[in-house]
Amino acid sequence: MTDAAISIRDLCKTYAGVKGGAPKRALDGVSFDVQRGSIFGLLGPNGAGKSTLINILAGLVNKTNGSATIWGFDIDEHPRNAKASIGIVNQEILFDPFFTPVETLEIQAGLYGVPKKERRSMELLRAVHLEDKAKAYARTLSGGMKRRLMVAKAMVHSPPVLVLDEPTAGVDIELRQQLWSYVRSLNDAGVTVVLTTHYLEEAEELCDRIAIINHGRVIANEPTAELVGKAQEKIVAVTVDRDVAALPRSTCFEKIVLKGARTLEITYSKDRVNAGEVLGAVQAEGFGIVDVSTKEADLEDVFLNLTRAANAG
Ligand SMILES: Nc1ncnc2c1ncn2[C@@H]1O[C@H](COP(=O)(O)OP(=O)(O)OP(=O)(O)O)[C@@H](O)[C@H]1O
């Protein structure tokens, strides 16, 4: 029995080849835990295996090997309890366009066996800012509204774990912010959240911990701050005391470009040199330093470095 919200061990999935084609190994021994109460990010390039993993948790895809528990319930031994413990928002928008949002939620609650007096369809619609659309046909909702209805639909049975598979694809910035603030409020209320996203800044902003999956394998699984700290390349912008006629040279610099008459943008590898050495190299070329600013590495850098390294290895 594990205390994790989700616990995955050695999960493998091989899809049979279509029409005599080669079988496809989509998950190749994936293991990780999602702590209760956290927001966990699952990142990876297209085709990495994220949807396969989520569909196994949802009971929509049969795993080839390995095990998974949701809220302590093994998906093979206690599939009903495991399913009741998780709400999943899929990439595709799925609901009957002829039902209204409130009907959609009532039907979903019925499917999960939520008794009528425990249903909270209007409360959920209010939370996702769709109260005034409660009785409109779902087909008349905008893309962003449909997406938010999907989130409300995933929450009808009040699961302790909410999984969002690429929930903001095609959602504009304002609605995305609204969606995230709702996800945050659910998390504040104790719901464990797992999300897959291609928006790295978003994962960086929202997630406590991030796992990166590539070609069906986990290549990183760390607290967000540590993962971001892993980016090796740093950029420092240095403003010098006179116009730069010729760029200074040094083995400390990975790259140097002139930004305006007196500002140098220098990329350096922080596992090789430190900022002091970089500035010293500029001074050694006869420049006085007037101002300095650094750019922190973001997740995009880490992600590219890790996937590049994993692909090369
Ligand atoms: N039903 C299937 N039959 C055969 N191969 C499949 C099937 N579903 C997925 N795959 C393959 O398995 C691999 C993983 O796909 P999956 O959809 O899990 O990736 P993903 O990380 O979710 O990608 P994306 O972000 O594009 O959705 C891909 O190579 C995909 O082509």
Automatic annotation (TrEMBL):
Domain of life: Bacteria
Span of domain ABC transporter: 6-240
Pfam families according to UniProt: ABC_tran
Keyword Transport in annotation: yes
Alphabetized UniProt keyword annotations: ATP-binding, Nucleotide-binding, Transport
GO MF entry, a single one: ATP binding
Record keyword rRNA processing present: no
Name of the protein in its database record: ABC transporter ATP-binding protein
